[in-house]
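In this section we walk through a basic example: taking a raw amino acid sequence and producing a predicted 3D structure, encoded as discrete structure tokens. The instruction is simple. Fold the sequence below.
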Amino acid sequence: MEKLMHPGRFVFWCFLLFMCGFAVSPVYSRDSSPPRRIVSLAPHITEIVFKLGAGDHLVGRTDFCNYPAAAASIESVGGYLNIDFEKIVRLQPDLVLQFPNAENRRKLESLGFRVAGISNETVADILNGIRETGKLLGRSQRAEEIVNGIQDTLRQIENNFAHQSESLPALLVVGREPGSLKGLYVAGKNTYLSELLRYCGVRNAFDDVPMKYFSLSTESLFQHQIDLIFEFHPGWKLTPGCLVKEKDVWQIVPHLNAVKRGNIFIFSERFYLIPGPRIARMALEFSRIVRKIRREQTRK
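The resulting token sequence is shown next.
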């Protein structure tokens, strides 16, 4: 019997398929005026458009664009892997914003649409994406205000941890089978999650691996010291009992400091895997957790 993929993992895998390492793609257009009809093909882009105050210009979004709540009233043009190009044609947008994806861009441009790709793999990508979107929508000043606010928060967090002599090694899990460590999939050092934690005095325990996201065997955990485990599973229904059970699966690697000390943190909120304007909120939550752990270490 085939195993059904957990909904949270499915969303994440679709998300990764589109995060394929391209740089921000150029805009192709004979008309540089601010668009009045926009289609967004990614959740982080939908958030940016609303944050810029241009949500009323969105006429299309994906099935996964559910934040802010007002996005639900906008017509969907499908999911990551099943974009309804005919519906986009009917919507007649002035601008289509997407993850950098060469195949989709060629298709959309062949239909006569103005297209721009907005990447979000790193913190720099996210900030540049906000600026780029602001420029495209004629809202550069607002974009700069958003970027400055994020940067101020990150600088403040970094300053708060600047006195720490050693970084805490952490494992960043972005996928595994519920109730098991099978299918362990982790984020590497050159990702926004790793970068946000770096501001908090935390380093990626697998910073020697050049890949952004990669599979990990349970055996490889015995070769690393890990003080913290952060797990990100959007869509998991974590009741108190389920949370205990999911943390207990780590008992098969009892030598890890994170397991010995109970420093395992599981996030089921979807926004943690939607790197966009809310990265400052993520960083603040990470800093709260790390401060608490540092205080506990000091007492000991």
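Looking at the output, two observations stand out. Residues 7-157 form a domain with the Rossmann fold fold (CATH 3.40.50.1980). The first helix runs from residue 7 to 18. In the next section we compare this with other chains.
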